[in-house]
Model the fold of this input.
Amino acid sequence: MLFVPLPFVNAILLALVFVLLRRSDTHSTTRAFLMLIALCCLQSIVLGLRWGYQLDALRFVQPVLAAMLPPLTYESFRGLRDRMKPDAMRLAAVPLAAFSAVCLLLLAPQFIDSFLLVLVLAYALALAILARSGPDSLELARLDSASLANRAIWWAAACLLASAGFDWLILLDFERSGGSNAAMLVSNANILSLLIIGLAALAAGKTQVLSTGDVEKLPPAPTSADTDIVSRVDTLMSEKNLYRDENLNLSRLARAAGLPPRQVSQAINKVRDKNVSRYVNDFRIDEACRLLRQDNVTVTEAMFRSGFSTKSNFNREFLRTTGTTPDAWRKSEGT
Done:
């Protein structure tokens, strides 16, 4: 019977993730996630060939792919934050990491493991800092899915940290037992981290839309300018019904108001004491309640027509706002 190493199974799962994301969208930010998943898939195949079929020559390929993963992971998720082109140094981070790994393999192979460990830790920290900014900083994520995208960044950071932990254990194993447990440690580490990074990329990629800002913690006292901004946005929401757009995000909302995204986000946070996502969802729930008062409108129709794209998010926000489920609310209203 043909032996199929577990990393090959992981590669197949990642390939399915790639297909799902490829069908969901094609804009530039999503393409970065496609590159990330493709790299994870390739790395799984290399692992399977090296440790499953003892192709030892691939030991020179594996560190190069491993060096490319942290910067590509960071740049992919950072693409949810704004659409500004990265500076030359950040744009060159992925090939630069690969080139550094090749140089170390040729000139100082004893330092390659330490290099990879530091690289993974540095980008795990960078991802954690990015996630710590919160959902409102993910300007290119749909408002109803920004929280999911933010959690995906935390997952990716945790995966990189777990990978760093396994790398440290592998170093210890080589020092103490000559690497007798290295195959098991490498396989377990990469299968888990690559698969979860791939799934995180899928979750984040599917929250995107075609359309920039980060949010800082601000003093609670709003200014008159903040009040004017929120009043302008309120008018847009009530008169143009922007909340009905399921792909609405901070960038689109700010463009409609003719203001910078950061300014809109800050004003809403200070005046309404809520983030942009919750602000928009409150309008959507009000619209859903209006629709549910009509006998000929189903709960599902009310959900889509008010701007929600997933039932789980609709039910969660409806419960948060009204304290009950859509069906129970409709019954209580006598409809």
